[in-house]
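Before going further, it is useful to explain how the protein records used in this thesis are read. An example of such a record is reproduced below.

***
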Amino acid sequence: MQNSNDLPSGVLLIDKAPGMTSHDVVAIARRQLNMKKIGHCGTLDPMATGLLMLVINRATKIQDLLMSEDKTYAGTLTLGATTSTQDKEGEIEVEKEVPDLNAEQISAAFDKYTGDFEQIPPMVSAIKKDGVPLYKLARKGQVVERKPRSVYVKNYDLTKINVPNVDFVVDCSKGFYVRTYAHDIGQDLGCGAHLSALRRTRSGKFTLERAVPVAVLKEASTEDLVNSFISLAEISLMRGA
C-alpha cells in the first residue's frame, strides 16, 4: 500500500452540480483519484451549486482553517411562501399574498441583516443535538430548541427585483445559513419567503475561476485532476502565511 506521503496533496476546487450532496462529490473524487483521504470544506445543500473545496491527503490538516473563512453566495428568494426547510426543497407551510413592495422596502429588510447579528439555525441542518444531526430529527417531525449563532454580513447587493423573486449576492461569515436569511427577510416583509436558488461563488481567496465542473470530475484522468490541485505551498502564499 502506498505511503500517504507518496500521494499528491492539495485542494481541488469543484463546481458542484444541483441535485447531489457534498458527500456525493467526495465519493466521485475518491473513485477518480483512487484515494480515500479526501474531505470537503463547507457543506452545500443538494439544491445549491457552486464552489466546493475538496481537501486531499495532507491538505485535510488545514480543513478547519479553510472552512473558517468568509464566503460569497448568489441567491434568489421567493416571497409569498414559507417552507419546512426554508428553501424550495421543503413543503409549503404558509402562503400569503405578496404586497406591492418597492425596491426601497426590500432593501430596508436586507439592511436589517447587515453587520453582526444572530441567526437561529434551521431544523434541517447538520448541527448536532446530543450527537444526532438536526435534519434526522426533522425527518421524524421533531423540532428542538436551537441556540442563536453569531454571524455577520459584510455586504449585499440586490441584483434583480422581479416580485415575488429577489436576486441577491451576499458576503457573509462561516456558519451563515442563506436559507434562514431568506426566511427572516420574508418574515420582516410580512409575506414570508424561501430560498429558491443558491450558488456559492467564493470561499476565502478561492473562486469558481479554477473550479472543475462535476461532469468533468466524473470523466477526468487522475493525472488531469492532480494537475488541477492547488498546492499547499500556493495556499500558504495566497493566505499570506
In short: The radius of gyration is 19 Å. The first helix runs from residue 22 to 33. The longest strand covers residues 149-162. The CA atoms of residues 123 and 142 lie 9 Å apart.
